[in-house]
Amino acid sequence: MRVLFVSGVSVGGAARSTYELAAVLERRGHAVATLMKIDEDEATTERHKRALNATVRAGRHPIGRAALPVLERYRRSIGRRRSEVDGHPFPAWRAAQPENAFCDVVAEFRPDLVVVNSIERPAWRMIRSECARRTIPTVLYLREASGVRHLVDPPAPPDLLIANAEAHAIEARDVGFACTVVPSVVDTTRCIVTPTRERVVFVNPVPVYGVDLAFAIAQACPDIGFDFVESWPLSDDDRRTLTTRCSELGNVALIPFQQDVRDVYRPARVLLMLCTVPSRPRVVLEAQASGIPVVAVDRPGHGEVVGPGGVLVAPDAALASWVDAIRAMFDDTRHYEGLVGAATAHAVRHDALPDAVADAFEHAVAGLVTTRVDR
C-alpha cells in the first residue's frame, strides 16, 4: 500500500513516532511518504491565520461572500511551498501549511491512504475534503486529546479513527465514534544507554508539560541535580526566563535539544513526567528501555505507558508527595532496583515493539486500502 502521513508538527514525540512508523512500514515493503508542518515558520503561520479569519468573516456577510473565491485562493497559497527533508528512507516533505501543499504531494505520490495527526481543525477539514473528492480513505490518528474536537461541531469523522492511547479512544467513543487503539511506535534501539543514574531528567520544560511543578520539586530537593531538556522549540523570551530560573536554584541545568536522544538519558536516575493533559508520552518508553524508572502524574494515558516501571502521583497531590517519590528513587535502594527491573521488562514487552505496532496498524487499515485498490 501507499501511505501518506500528514502531521501538524515536525518536532516532539508525535513527529518522531510518525517518522518511525513510516520507517517500519517502508522496511516491510510499503511505499510511504510524510508531509509535516515547519513549526518554526511563525510569520507564515500568523499570515495564514489572518487570512483564515478574513475568510470566515467574509462568509458571514452577503457583501463579503463575493470576495470569498479570491480570499480562499490567497489562503490556500500561503505556506504551500514544500522542501524535502534529508535522512529518511522515504520521501519526507515539510511545509509551513501542509494542508496547502497537500494537493501537490497527492498528485506526485498518489497515496492509497492518508493518515493525519496533530493538526489544526481547519487543516483537517480541508485535507478530509480533498481526500473525499479523490476517493482516498483517511485515518485520523489521535496522539493528543485535543484531536477529538475534529470529530464534532460539526462532525468531520475520518474513514477510520485510531488513537495511540486507550484514554483518547474512550473520549472518542464517548462522543459516538468507534476507535481502534494502536500505540505510537517508539524505536528504543536508538535510546538505550548505560545511565550514570545521577540526576532527575525532565523533558520539554513548557507549561503544558508541568514546568512550574518541576521547578517546585527541584527547589524542594536542593541536593539533587535536575536536567530540564528542551524538546519543543523555545522562544528567546522563554529560554531567557528558564535560564534565569535555573540559575536562581543552582541545582537545575537547562539542556538544549539533543539530536542523539541517548544524551538525554545518559545522566538519568529517574525520568520526571508531569504533562498536564491526557497523553501517552514516548519519553517514558525511551527512558524505561535503559532501565530508568519514571515518576509521573496520574492522568489518563499515563498509567498505560508507565505500567509497573514507575510511580504515579495524583494530580492534586501536595508537593511533599512529589518530593517523597523523587527522594525514594535516591534513598531506597531496594525500591529503586525493583523499579529498574520492572521498567526494563515493561519497555521490551511484545506489544511495545515497533513491528508489533506496525502489525496492528496494517490490520486496522487493511480494509480501507483493499477498498481503495478495488475501486
Look at the structure and give the mean pLDDT: 92
What is the alpha-carbon Rg in Å? 22 Å
The major pleated sheet works out as:
8 strands, mixed
Instruction: Give me the number of helical elements.
Output: 15
Separation, N- and C-terminal Cα atoms:
14 Å
Helix content: 40-55%
The count of DSSP E runs of length 2 or more, i.e. the number of strands, is 14
Order of helices and strands: EHEHHHEEHEHEEHEEHEHEHEHEHEHHH
The largest sheet has its strands arranged as 3-4-2-1-5-6-7-8
Outline the low-pLDDT stretches.
Answer: none
- The helix/strand class is alpha/beta
Based on Cα principal axes, name the global outline: globular
The proportion of strand residues reads 15-25%
Observed structural traits:
about 45% helix, alpha/beta, eight-stranded mixed sheet
SSE arrangement:
Layout: E1 2-7, H1 12-27, E2 31-37, H2 42-58, H3 62-65, H4 68-77, E3 82-84, E4 92-95, H5 98-109, E5 113-117, H6 121-133, E6 138-142, E7 160-163, H7 166-174, E8 180-181, E9 199-203, H8 211-220, E10 225-229, H9 236-249, E11 252-255, H10 262-265, E12 268-273, H11 282-288, E13 294-297, H12 302-306, E14 310-313, H13 319-331, H14 333-347, H15 354-374
Parallel strand pairs: 1-2, 1-5, 2-4, 5-6, 6-7, 7-8, 9-10, 9-12, 10-11, 12-13, 13-14
Antiparallel strand pairs: 3-4
